[in-house]
Structures are given as structure tokens and as C-alpha cells.
Amino acid sequence: MPRLSRRLAPSAGALGSCALAGCTPLNVLAHDGVTGSRETGLGWFLVIVSCAVICIITILVLVAYARSRKRRTRDDAVFAGSSGVPWVMWGGVVIPGIVLLLTFIFTIGTLDAVAAPTRSPAATVKVIGHQWWWEVRYEGTGPSHTVVTANEIHVPVGQPVKLELTTNDVIHSFWVPALAGKTDIIPGQTNTTWIEARHTGVFGGTCGEYCGAQHAHMQMRVIADSPGDFQKWLADEAAPAAKPADPTAADGLRVFMTSGCANCHTIRGTGSGGGVGPDLTHIASRTTIAAGTLPNTQANLMGWILAAQAIKPGSDMPSMPLPSRDLQSLAAYLETLR
Ligand code: HEC
Ligand SMILES: [Cu+2]
């Protein structure tokens, strides 16, 4: 086990969820979402205005310094402009007032525009923060339409999606920089926000509020699908888990049910009902495991099951030292859960 954990630990560190192919990284200047684009525009406006103010003030200070070395200005020369309005009034009150007013109007306008979508949302997704992973729930018309997944949020492209954010433990913060600003997730409270991706693609996100040892390994991805793909994904995810199709997978299910996994995890359709860790009904349809820590491959699944505590020390998943045959059939079974 120690050898395995040495092999896995560095790759866990180096692989942010977005180091994997095709994901928009965590860059506050990258924007694709409707709210994210407006917020980035406001950010640039504030940066440009602030820089302009600093430049103008610096020039004025330098000019004043140069002139004061040439001759002593009389105090009344400063206050008496030729037009009658003293120019310190222009420079000190009127112009800064106009600049501040414009900034205020632009800021309030942006906040107002991103507060709520103009159309009614295409879907409502519940996102629940856990130390250190994201539970994602789509509550349909009945229990058979409820979708429970983790760390990957599928949304239809070009349509607003409402997010209801709660936490199971401490304060977290929902942050997918390319799509929208941060929204804190506070115990005992439901905060809402919304996202709308303009293009299909994968957008990286992370917890934006320090929440304990594995805060940096609490990543997520928003996957913007075409509306057709989104509906198909939703229908696939709502179905119970695939029945084991071969003896290895059947053995894997036996290991899952008898090794303690079922106490913490749910695979719908198997009788397991644990709620401590992510729902594994369709684990093979996710691109990463352990909240963006590792790519979802059979080898990484085995590594994670054996050495979860080496990969994500402090996480609620214990390392499970299973005999290698059991481990292999278990990982093979999990890989069939598309
Ligand atoms: C004591 C509770 C507990 C037990 C027992 C447990 N797990 Fe977990 N498991 C968790 C938690 C919590 C996480 C989320 C860890 C994280 O990402 O921080 C997790 C994560 C996982 C993941 C990654 C899921 C994802 O979507 O990222 C897999 C796969 C997994 N567990 C499989 C197993 C298997 C197989 C067993 C039995 C051998 C098992 N677990 C036993 C609590 C448990
Ligand atoms: Cu967090």
C-alpha cells in the first residue's frame, strides 16, 4: 500500500480536474456564461477607470512638483480659475463625483442584470457541499425521476439553470469562474444562483471558501450539453444501475454489498442505501473521481478504494484494504455502471 500511495499521491496533486483534456480552466478572465460575461465586463471597466485615475493623479502630482520648484505658487492662484469656478473644485469634486457616479451606475446595473435570469430556468439543480465533494440532485416529478450524482453538473446549453445551494457541514462556496461569480453556501440556509453557458463544453469549478484540509481537492465541472444530449443524460441517470452482465461484475457487486461500501454509498437497484459518500449508480459516466482529484479509470478506482486516505487524507472514505481479486472485480463492476 505505501508503494501504491507514493505512485498515486503526486498524480493526485498535479492533476487538477482541469488538467484533464478539454476543460475550461479556473481563470477569472475566461468567460462564457451570461452572468460571468457581464461580471468580467464590469471587472475590466473598474480596472480601466482605476488605472486612469491613478495615471491622472500621478501626472498632476509630478506637474505640481515641477512647478513648485520653478516658482512659489501663490495660494490664491490655485483657487482662482479664469472661468470663475476654482479648478480644484473641478478636479477635486465634480470630475471624481461623475466618475464615482458612473462606476456606481455600472455596478448596480450589472448586479441587477445578474440577479435573476430573464427567462424561466430550464432546470433546477440542488447542489449540496460536503467535506470535500459536491452532491448534485435533479428532483424530477417523482422518486423515479430523481437524479443524484456528484461533482459533475450537466446543464443544457443556452438556457438558464437555477442552482439551490446548501451544505451538509461547514461553509463552502460554489465557484465556476467562466460561468458566474462565487456564491457562498452557508449552514442552515439555501442560497440560490443561476448559470447559463453560451457554448457546449466543460467548465472547471472549485470550492471558493476554505473548508478544511482537502479544500483544494473539492473541485467540480459543469458540462454544458446540447438540449437533446442533456435530456438523454438525465434519462440515463434516472435509471437504476445496470445489472451485472458477467460473473466478474456479479462478484464485484457481492464485494460492494459485503465490504462496507453499501453503508456509505448508494447504487440504486441493489438495495444499498448509504448516504455518506457520493451516489455510485452511474459512477462510470463521470470523468473524474473524488471531486476532480483523479481521472475516472479502472486503475484509479482501485487505487482510490485501497488508499483513499493517502490520496485525500482526512476524507470520510477510509482506505479499504481488500484482497486483490475482490478489488479487481469490484473495480470492474463499478466500470460497468454507465
Ligand atoms: C465510511 C464511509 C465510506 C465507506 C465505507 C466507503 N466509502 Fe467510498 N466514499 C466515501 C466518501 C465520503 C467519498 C467522497 C470522498 C471525497 O471525494 O472527498 C467516497 C468516494 C468514493 C468514490 C468516488 C466517487 C466519486 O464520484 O468521486 C468511489 C468510487 C467510492 N467511494 C467507492 C467505494 C467503495 C467501492 C467502497 C467499499 C470498498 C467504499 N467507497 C467505501 C465514503 C465511504
Ligand atoms: Cu468547500
Give me a quick take on this structure.
This protein is of the alpha+beta class and 338 residues long. It is built from 9 helices and 13 strands.
Topology:
Layout: H1 2-14, E1 23-24, H2 34-70, H3 75-79, H4 87-115, E2 123-130, E3 133-138, E4 147-150, E5 152-156, E6 161-167, E7 172-176, E8 180-185, E9 191-195, E10 201-207, E11 219-225, H5 227-238, H6 247-258, H7 261-264, E12 288-289, E13 294-295, H8 298-311, H9 324-335
The structure holds heme C (HEC) and copper (II) ion.
Model description:
The protein has helices spanning 2-14, 34-70, 75-79, 87-115, 227-238, 247-258, 261-264, 298-311, 324-335, and strands at residues 23-24, 123-130, 133-138, 147-150, 152-156, 161-167, 172-176, 180-185, 191-195, 201-207, 219-225, 288-289, 294-295. The protein is of the alpha+beta class. The chain folds into three domains: 2-20 and 240-335, Cupredoxins -  blue copper proteins (Immunoglobulin-like, Sandwich); 34-115; 123-238, Sandwich (Immunoglobulin-like). The strands form three sheets. Strands 1, 5, 7, 8, 10 and 11 form a six-stranded mixed beta sheet that branches. It is elongated and about 95 Å long. Bound molecules: heme C and copper (II) ion.
